[in-house]
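Bench notes, afternoon.
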Amino acid sequence: MSFELTYHGHSAWHLTVDDTTLLIDPFFDNAHTKLEPEDVDTPDYLLLTHAHADHIGHAEHFADATLVATPEVVSYAKAELDFEEAVGGIGMNLGGTVECDDAFVSMVRADHTNGINTEHEYEGGMPAGFVISDTKPTQLADSESTTFYHAGDTSLMSEMKDVIGPYLEPDAAAVPIGDHFTMGPMQAAVAVDWLDVEHAFPMHYDTFPPIEVDTDEWEREVQATGSGAETHILDGEESVVLD
């Protein structure tokens, strides 16, 4: 199985898991990419962590993809973003795992808020993160599987240490470091340590003035935890293949 990650800036990630493509939080109005949403091929699956504008972003440009989100966000996307009923969507919730062709997508909590900015009243449900693997998660450790954790917008939470790290066993994690709206460098570094990942990526930073940070500070904080994770600072459109 092949497992490739491409960063589009902010919290937007493109994943290729064997022959299956997934796009997470497609917001392209950020300094780390020069791509327009029209430049990006429609993925097989579009994953939305929550309903804030910088995460739903340009979702309507990918309305032919199968949407994966909370039932509330799926309903909102069908009503307001032209997602076709024929294509449908996978409404799931925290703790669930769904099979998306070659990938298994598990939804985990994110400690954040989830308002939808619209003239109509919609509930967004709980904000989430996604753990994406090329094998179905089980309690038996699988050294052959490859797993990526997209933490969404979150604060530091003990679930990373108690559930996500030991039971879902991510090999790599993308964590928000921008502070103000999410974790900052110090708490994000502790998250990397608790998750016990081999590879760590920062996201959700430098897009707006309140979340401008020094990524070197995050790397220093990761080292200070004693974590063995390799840190990767990606610019937009850079890719990494997970082995």
